[in-house]
Amino acid sequence: MSHVVLNGVTKRYGAQLALDAVDVSVDKGEMLALLGPSGCGKTTLLRCIAGLNDADAGTISIGGADVTRMPARKRPIGMVFQSYALFPNLSAAKNVAFPLTVRRRERKETAARVEELLALVGLEEHGHKLPNQLSGGQQQRVALARALAPDPEVLLLDEPLSALDAQVRTRLRDEVRRIQHQVGITTVFVTHDQSEALAISDRVAVMNAGRIEQCATPPEVYAAPSTRFAAGFVGNRNTLELPVADGRVAWGGAFDVEAPSGERALCLFRPEDVEIGADGPGLAATVDVKVFLGAVTRVYATCDGTTVFADVPSRSAAGLEDGQKVFVRVAPEHVQVFAA
Amino acid sequence: MTTPQVSTPVAGDARASGASRPPAALGGRGPAALGRRLLRLLAGWLPALPLLVFTLGMLVLPALRLVHDTFALRSGGFGMDNIQKVADNPVDREAIANSLELGALQATLAAAFGMPAAWLISRMRVAGRATWLALMNVASNFAGIGLAFGFVALIGTTGMLTHLLDVSFPATGSFTGMNIAYLYFNIPMFVLLTLPAVAVLKDDWWEAAQVCHATRRQFWRRIGAPVLAPFAAAGWLLIFTWTIGIYAVAYALASGPQSVKLITLQIGATLESSVFGLERAAVLSVLLMLLAIVSTVLYRLAIRRATRWL
Amino acid sequence: MRSRIGSRVFLALLALYFALPLVAALLYSLATKWGDTVLPSGYTLHWWVDVFSRPEVSGALGRSLVLTAVTLAIDVLLVVPAAYWSVVHNPRIGSVVQTVTVIPFAIPWVVIAAGLQLIVKDTVPQLFGTFWLLAAATAAIAFPFLYWAVENSLLAADARRLSEAAATCGAHPMVTLVRVVLPAIRGGIVSGSLLVAATAMNEFALAKVLVGTRYETLPLWSARVFTSRTGNDPNALAVITIFTFGLLFALSALVVWLGRGKSASSTLALARTSSSAEKG
Question: What residue in B sits closest to A47 (Cα-Cα)?
Fold first, then answer.
């Protein structure tokens, strides 16, 4: 059942179209990631849901109620800002209590709720501290607790992890997911980091130039991108532009697949789908260089001046030498083809 | 150990020199070592010596001399007689009261007008902000005799506005007249001082407050005002001190009728007219220095408090 | 909506308050005759030509310019080596100098003038009332502007690393200073100098107390004409007022223009300029 529904939401900044008639819906308790490069409109979309930006056209409803013209301070939402936007003069506990205080909740009830939330984010010991006495990760947790405090219907997260360093980021990413599951709250979350989006969301909406290119589960987006942009943005891919002949496109003996109409086609395939063997079948190539990445080794191989990279299990890559002649092949079902 | 040295040269250097130079207590190892140490000390300070000696002579010594003259008695020895004489003099008492009152009123008015102005200017787009900044800068520069002339030409007995509105304004040399003129540079001064502080108030916070369902009033009462208040207090203190120390505009305006007595004017008059009684100027000067010291200390405290959260 | 209109009105009234004294002075400088009317009865450029052809005015302007030049020379010679040594070799210089810069910033200049008068009259009375005393005193109260600007640009250019890099290239310290460091901080020296010049051109208290009529600068001339009961000459005063205003405006505009891209620091510098002008 759709909890948040956006219909034809459009937003213009002067001549620039930030959102181009976006339709998207989020189910109750679902976590939707808005994924895209900077300037693609993902943050604008989130701010439209929050009511911090007004949509020029289209409607937004939450829980069946039209909130399109409702100011932010009336909407049933909680939001975590990219900068966290913690109030500097209030302690962590007072920050968490703020949404309840301005709603004039009873003091006892507020105190209990604050305690509960600080425990949920693992900051029971730090409630008395001011924001600038907390680490980045702790500030992020306080911001999350503050957003959850009034028990909103929808939780909005604007690049909540981007200000953190890599290690803290992965840990908090998983924790955000745990808390979201535990609370069971409908969540929309903006990120430019595809691994973050794929890791913790139920569905990913890949955005580009104010539009949603594809909206599907992480495995679907990863394995079968529906547009060229989605294919290029999600995951690492080899990209080859090849001529089309008789409705098919082929790269030597490496693969031969059906092609869309047109003279040339763009073929994309993942490094882990590239097989490298000492014998054929396949396309004869030369190993340039190997990069050890731990479980896998990335092998760069060149054929006719075109270099592709393959992620090979490190154990089998051990047998490959720089300059060795090898055969390269890709299973046809792993090649995505788009008109060039 | 290397990181602090790279990022803060001050700390790094202190460490380095501390390590290379033995503590003074252990330094007595013959005249050669002493000579080397003196030489190294000299090399560390030599290029700055002219500036340090110059400012010592031109700024520090005059201040010390004024303190000395305040307590030195004509009959020899030291005492409070000079201070007592000023305290008993009704003219000086009036000047001190006027100066303090003028400073406090100016600082309050400058804050009352300057704070909203700074807020509005900080929220403008680039072009509007640049224009207003230029205007503020020019206005705060337009002090001195020229400002006095401008206001006499505007609201003096034959001033432009006096004719236009057909009313008589307070005399430019009066307490009210001076207040009208002083605001001309004190409001811009306050705006220029607090603009960086107002920029501290992030839009994020207002948005976050909205999402938390706070009204504008709740936001200002619980976040905006507490964050800005110490900055405003710091600005108030600076305007207060500067206003009391102003001489040029006061000198020009006070030449008019019904002129008010101020500390700086009393100092100037004493220095020019009397061969004796210079200790009166010293006492009044020391009073101004004391005010400056106190307000500088309070200013530092206010700024420390203001930046505590940031 | 209502608050937006309210703030428009507030800003408009503020702008009017700032514009009116200037307008009045400007009209005076262009008026043929201005009696009991709101606006002058006619306009002329006569006063602008007349005022600057008077020997007492051109003399005062010349004296102010000479004072400014000498003040600048003193400050540049004293400040640049000290700031350089502080940033590159001995940071403790910086903390001492920063403490001293508080003095002319916090203590009224008429007080500094009073202290100087007492000292000089006791020790070297022949120095009192001379140009050199005035120039030295002006340099002393204006030096913080230059010191702050030079130190900031030395830090911004990372002169310490530059000097180290030059040393690893085998450059002599003097060569480093002249070829590497000075070009890197030229902007700071220029904008600091402009602030010093604005101070020296506008300074009144020191000139009034230390030299009086013996070296009449432009502010002293203005004050004398303004306060004299008999020879009150509003048109000439108006010309000098607008002229001074234009000069200060040009100087501060130059500072802003040189510091463009570094808005925060120039705002601070502006705040400091203003304080100097106001105390004059």
Answer: B207
**B143 vs C25, C104, C280: nearest CB:** C280
Omega prior to A281 cis, within 30 of 0? yes
pTM: 0.82
Q: Cα separations (Å) of B22 from B1, B9, B10, B11, B19? A: 21, 21, 19, 18, 7
CA B133 centroid distance within chain = 20
What does each of the 280 residues of chain C score in pLDDT, given as a tens digit?
Answer: 446 788 999 999 999 999 999 999 998 888 877 766 777 777 888 888 888 899 999 999 999 999 999 999 999 999 999 999 999 889 999 999 999 999 998 899 999 999 999 999 889 989 998 999 999 999 999 999 999 999 999 998 888 888 888 888 888 878 888 888 888 898 899 989 998 998 999 899 999 999 988 999 999 999 999 888 655 688 888 999 999 888 888 887 887 777 665 544 434 443 443 343 334 3
Euclidean distance between CA atoms C100 and C75, whole angstroms: 14
The phi, psi pair for A242, rounded to 5°, reads: -130, 155
Select from C69, C108, C198 the least CA-distant residue to B143: C198
| Nearest-by-CA chain B residue for C222 | B145
Q: Are A301 and A310 in contact (CB under 8 A)?
A: yes
Task: Tell me how close the Cα of C217 comes to any Cα of chain B, in angstroms.
Answer: 13
> Are A144 and A136 within 8 A, CB to CB?
no
CA distance A259 to chain B (A): 49
Q: Give dist(CA B26, CA A136) in Å, integer.
A: 46
Q: Which of residues 31-70 of A touch B (CB under 8 A)?
A: 50-52
How high does pLDDT run on average in chain A? 90
Whether the Cβ atoms of residue C273 and residue C196 lie closer than 8 Å to each other: no
Q: Cα–Cα distance between A131 and A113 in angstroms, integer?
A: 19
CA geometry: angle B80, B81, B86, nearest 5 deg: 100
Q: What is the pLDDT of residues A275-331, one digit of tens each?
A: 988 887 888 899 999 999 888 999 999 988 888 999 999 888 888 888 889 999 999
Cβ of B212 within 8 Å of Cβ of A130? The answer is no
Determine the length of chain B. 310
Report the candidate in B192, B147, B118, B240 with the shortest Cα–Cα distance to residue C18.
Answer: B147
Q: Which SS3 state, helix, strand or coil, does residue C43 take? A: strand
SS (H, E, C) chain A: CEEEEEEEEEEEECCEEEEEEEEEEEECCCEEEEECCCCCCHHHHHHHHHCCCCCCEEEEEECCEECCCCCHHHCCEEEECCCCCCCCCCCHHHHHHHHHHCCCCCHHHHHHHHHHHHHHCCCHHHCCCCHHHCCHHHHHHHHHHHHHCCCCCEEEEECCCCCCCHHHHHHHHHHHHHHHHHHCCEEEEEECCHHHHHHHCCEEEEEECCEEEEEECHHHHHHCCCCHHHHHHCCCCEEEEEEEECCEEEECCCEEEECCCCCEEEEEECHHHEEEECCCCCEEEEEEEEEECCCEEEEEEEECCEEEEEEEEHHHHCCCCCCCEEEEEECHHHCEEEEC
The whole-angstrom separation of Cα B132 and Cα B140 is 12
Q: Which two tokens stand for residue A251?
A: 């790269």
Instruction: Identify the CA nearest to A336 among candidates A243, A228, A219, A215.
Output: A228
Q: Between vectors from CA C104 to CA C101 and to CA C109, what angle results, nearest 5°? A: 175
Strand A186-191 with A154-158, pairing: parallel
C124 in helix, strand or coil?
coil
Using the Cβ of A182 and the Cβ atoms of chain B, whether some distance falls under 8 Å is answered with no
